[in-house]
Design brief:
Strand content: under 5%
Helix content: over 70%
Distance between the termini: 48 Å
Number of helices: 3
Number of domains: 1
Amino acid sequence: MLPALAGFGLFWYRFIVGDDWTIAVTVFAGLAVVFVLRSLGIMAWWLMPVLVIAILGVSLYRVRTRQASSART
């Protein structure tokens, strides 16, 4: 039973976190902020698309600069 639970947990960790943990943290933090703002009565639905686009751009930029620096060596 324990190996099955460990495998299940590992699957979800790899599925949610994937290759870049910063994307998962940003999305989780964004959801928390939107929840808090919504509970205060502030419409903040637009925040998640902005955060996802921004963190995707940051992640792609980091990968590209990492690949460019490794190609020079």
